[in-house]
Structure formats: C-alpha cells, structure tokens
Hints:
transmembrane, elongated
Amino acid sequence: MGSYRDARLRLPREDIDLPEDRGCLRWVLAIPLVVLYVPAVFSCYLALAMRPASPYDRLRDDARFMGGFSVFLCLLGLLITITPLYRRTMGRWWFAAPVLIATTAYFRARTV
C-alpha cells in the first residue's frame, strides 16, 4: 500500500564511515601521531637516562627540559587525537600511549 518513494526512504543509508573502509584512513591519520610520539618517547628516554652527579649539575636542568618537552609533545598529540575525525576513526588505545609517556616524563622531571 506504500509507494516506491516510501520504500526508498526506509532503506538503510550507506554510511561513508564503514568499518571496512577505515584501514587506509587509519594508517594516514596515524602518521602525524607517530611523528609526535616517537620524539616524545626519545626525549622521555633521555630524561630517564640522565643521571646528574649533584644538585647543582646542569644535567638536572636538561633532564627537566627533556621531560617537559616530552609532556608537551604528548599533549599536542592528545589534542589532535580528541578531534572528531580521530575519535571516530582511530581506536581508544591511541590515548593510552601518550598518557603513559607523559606521566613517566612528568614524574621524572619533578623527581630529578
């Protein structure tokens, strides 16, 4: 008793964000995050590896700077990750790595 137009309106609409189409998009969106997180991990490692000999050693300031730089890079990556495109496409585990790196770097910068 319905017309063709009514049946057409009730058909499910194809979504452009199909899960099987996200594979390549995830790789493309991961590039900026990896570009931010690799230097963040390296600077966190440097902050952890620096062992100042005394409280007046200049290496202390360098370790604090590297820890702060790592936290900055992680926060920048998290700001990118919370955008709607990234939240919809990427998995939630992309939030875990920068939080872990930033927490480690922050505590190292504070306890040097």
